Structure formats: structure tokens, C-alpha cells
Amino acid sequence: GFINFTSVDINQALSVYAHLVGRTVLRPAGLVGGPIVLKTQTPLTKKEAIQALDAVLALSGISLINVGDKFVKAVPVGQANQEGAPFNRQDASQLPEMGQYVTHILQVTNAKPSELQPYLQFFSKLPNAIIPIDSSGILVLRDNTENVKRMLEIIKELDVTVPAEFVNEV
């Protein structure tokens, strides 16, 4: 169906979100968010409506983090990195274009994680969203799915073997 939030209170938006995802929303008492505005121009599937609400809530400064099968935490964006988001191991092509806050762990094979970090930082909206662990070649990415998806696409292009300048021939 259509969504027509002209100036909906954050509590109403979270109530609609809870209904769509079939989970109870856990939120701090002082959660602040401006009025939510979202008017769709075409009918949405349930999945698309959830993605749209994830995105508009993120734009309003609220991150949504799944907890188990029955709950979702609604926290300020700046606090999202302090919450225990579930791990996501999907390939970049499987991640949605918009969505919730996720934690993605990836082992790089050719580049040092700390060398990749500056290039990935441009795609992150959160502080300390990219954690390089050079000793094991691991990158921990924590952000909304659309940002993690872009980071994974960049990593795929940057984590490659560099051809040697000289070729040995016999």
C-alpha cells in the first residue's frame, strides 16, 4: 500500500514499524526524533515499506537494531555503535539498498585493513564505524546496510593482487 506520513510523531512511526516487522520496539524514554515525513508515490510491498521506514528513521537520527526474534531497539544514531547489532555475513549483492544498522565482519586477502580504512570512511555516516584488525586481516564494518553495501563493493575493487612490474621469463 501507500504511506502518507505528513508530520507523524516518532511514537506513531515506531508503532507502524513494529506492526510491519512483527516485533516489539524497545526504546529509551528520552528518544528524540523530529516529525516523520514520508509520502510514497507508488504502492509498496511490506518489505519495501520496512526499508522506507528504516531509511526515514535513520534520516531522523534513529537507528533500528534487531535483537533476537521478537525485539528491535530504537536508539539515537550516535549510540548505535555501542549496541550489540547482530552480525551480517551477506555478500554486497544480497544487502538491500536501504535498511537497518548492521555489523559486518570481512576478511580481506590482499590489502591491509588499515590501508582500506581511509577509502571506506567516505561511505560511513557514523564515527568509528570501520575497525581494521591488521593482525588477522579483518575489517569490522558497522553502519546502515546501504553504507555497508557500498563499503563492501569498494573493498571488492580494492582488495586485489597487484600485478608485478617485472615478469620473469625463461
Features:
single chain, 170 residues, alpha/beta, 4-stranded mixed β-sheet, 28% helix
Question: How is the secondary structure organized here?
Answer:
Elements: E1 4-8, H1 10-21, E2 24-26, E3 36-39, H2 46-59, E4 62-67, E5 71-76, E6 87-88, E7 101-107, H3 113-120, E8 130-133, E9 138-144, H4 145-158
Helix pairs in contact: 1-2
Descriptive notes:
The chain is built from four helices and nine strands; from the N terminus they run E-H-E-E-H-E-E-E-E-H-E-E-H. It has helices at 10-21, 46-59, 113-120, 145-158, and strands at residues 4-8, 24-26, 36-39, 62-67, 71-76, 87-88, 101-107, 130-133, 138-144. The strands form three sheets. It has a four-stranded mixed beta sheet. Strands 2-5-4 form a three-stranded mixed beta sheet. The longest helix is centred in the first third of the chain and has 14 residues, at 46-59. The model has no long low-confidence stretch (mean pLDDT 87).
Précis, in short:
The protein is of the alpha/beta class. Helix content is about 30%, strand content about 25%.
Report the radius of gyration as a whole number of Å. Answer: 19 Å
Total number of helical segments? 4
Q: What string, H for helix and E for strand, traces the elements in order? A: EHEEHEEEEHEEH
Q: What's the overall average pLDDT, rounded?
A: 87
% residues in beta strands: 25-35%
Q: State the secondary-structure class.
A: alpha/beta
Assign an overall shape: elongated
Q: Span from first to last CA?
A: 68 Å
Low-pLDDT segments, ≥5 res: none
Placed side by side, the strands forming the largest sheet appear as: 6-7-9-8
Report the helical percentage: 25-40%
- By DSSP, the count of extended strands is 9
Please describe the biggest sheet, giving its number of strands, its sense, and whether it closes into a barrel: 4 strands, mixed
